[in-house]
Amino acid sequence: MRKLINTIPTGVLSAIATFLCLYLLLDSDPFGAQEMRLFPGADKVIHIIMFIGVACAYIFDYAKYKMPHHTNLNKELAFAAAAFTLGVLAEVAQLVMQNGRGFEWADLVADLAGAILGFLFMKFFFIKHFRNYILKFKRHHHHH
Asked: Which of 10, 31, 82, 128 places its Cα 20 to 30 Å from the Cα of 18?
C-alpha cells in the first residue's frame, strides 16, 4: 500500500475526484441513475458522500505534497472550501446547461456538509495516521 501511495503522482487523486464529481453532477443521466429507485433524499446523501470524497482527495494530495512536514490548518480549510466551490460551480452549471439537471439549494447544503465532514475526517483522523504510516516507512526504508 505504501508503494502504491508513493507511486501515484500528487494531484492525480484530486483530478480523478474532480472529474468524477463533475460527471456525476453535470451528465444528464450519469450511469443510468434515473432508472434507479432510491429512498427519498438519496440524492442528498450521494452529494454528501461525493463531497466527503472530493475534500478528502484534495486534502490528501496536499498532505502528501507536504510530507514530511506538517500540514497547515488554513490550507486544509482552503482545500475543503475549494471542494465546496466545485459544488457551487456545478450547481450553477446545471442551471446554465439546461440538460435536465436543476439547481437546488439543498444540494449545496449537502455539498457543504460533505466538504466539512471530509475536512474533519482528514484533520482529526487521517492525516496523523497517514504521516506516521508514511514516515515510518521512509525511516525504515533508509536503513537498508
From this structure: 128
So what's the pLDDT on residue 99? 84
Which residues does 118 contact at the CB level (< 8 Å), separation at least 6? 51, 52, 53, 54, 55, 56, 59, 80, 83
Over 60: is that where the pLDDT of 108 sits?
yes
End-to-end CA distance of the chain: 19
Residue 142 has pLDDT above 80, yes or no: no
Alpha helices in the chain (DSSP H): 2-7, 12-26, 42-66, 73-97, 105-121, 127-142
What are the extents of the domains in the chain? 2-31+39-142
Residue 109 CB partners (closer than 8 Å, separation 6+): 44
Cell numbers of 88, please?
457551487
